[in-house]
Amino acid sequence: MDIIKLLSDNQDYIITGVFTLCLLIQLVYYLLIYSRLLFYRKKGIKKSKEPVSVIICAKNEASNLDKFLPSVLTQDYPNYEVIVVNDCSTDDTDEVIGKYIKQYPHLRTTTINEDKKFSHGKKLALTIGIKAAKNEQLVFTDADCEPVSKLWLSRMQRNFADKISIVLGYGGYFPRFSLLNNYIRYDTLFVALQYFNYKIAGLPYMGVGRNLAYRRSLFFEKKGFASHYHLLSGDDDLFVNENATRSNTAIEISKESHTRSLPASSLREWIKQKKRHLVTGRYYKKVHKFLLSGDLISRLFYYLSFAYLVSKNIFFEAIIIAFILRMLIQLIILKNAMLRLKEKHLLLSSLFYDFFSVIINILLYISTRLRPSRRRWK
Questions:
Q1: Full-prediction pTM beyond 0.70?
Q2: Among the listed residues 111, 2, 134, the one whose alpha carbon sits nearest the alpha carbon of residue 59
Q3: CA distance 235 to 291
């Protein structure tokens, strides 16, 4: 009882201490990690253009392939092949691929036929595509993705210098006039801000399959997706988390290297996608889980303690000044990321999303623990 009374009597000071601690933690994240992209300059660019294999997995993606595949097939690159893995499609995917094979001799395809006794995820399709590839350097994107320029392949490939085996690119989403689209693009931008900056800091932990490259030899040397094949997702982030190191990984953020994808058209569809990817976070290396959860938890208690102190008018001026300081640092860093990754109309809304994203990620993570996703990739 004495302890409870002591805590009650000193509640305001305790919450002030929580706010101060969380503020300091947040400043460490922004000033020591997230600010690194501000000063990043590309080094060690390779000039020779070696043969490349682009791998795309497609499951009932006929309309998307018809729309976006030509932008992959017409890259300004001297020697590359495009492999489309037709994974048990029941639409016109095969016909669309056949149409483009007649026009582009560097397009190849392989088909997985449906077996009702055996279910599989995207990792099988990717493995088959990698085995079919003729070249050492592999670049991955999705059927609903479009490179923003004809130099996409060249910009991604130029990083395979010295000991580099993994290249992390940026895969954004097409802008749409809706609140959901605005939040999806913000979430994508912030995730990219994290994995790019962690790589610059020497702690690469993930990449996105919409724009990713690695060596074929690395895939087989590390036994591909064997350690996490049972998971629905993780073909991109878990593979990178397991195999990326300070010295074997590079990032590519030039404006020509980006891809854009079709965003989820409904909240339900986006929640399913987000939950699928949140599942893999539990399998990250301990240091990455510690750092990522540290940001999330400190941000949550930072906002909760701020709201309490302001409502009680406790150290009001000092609290407001500290809040504005962190907000300005956040906006400067986010604005730089928006300029580098060619995202627009996210800055002001990010002030709300900064807290909202904490709540939504926690709720979705809890949901994944209570109701795991079924084994389907489409």
A1: yes
A2: 111
A3: 22
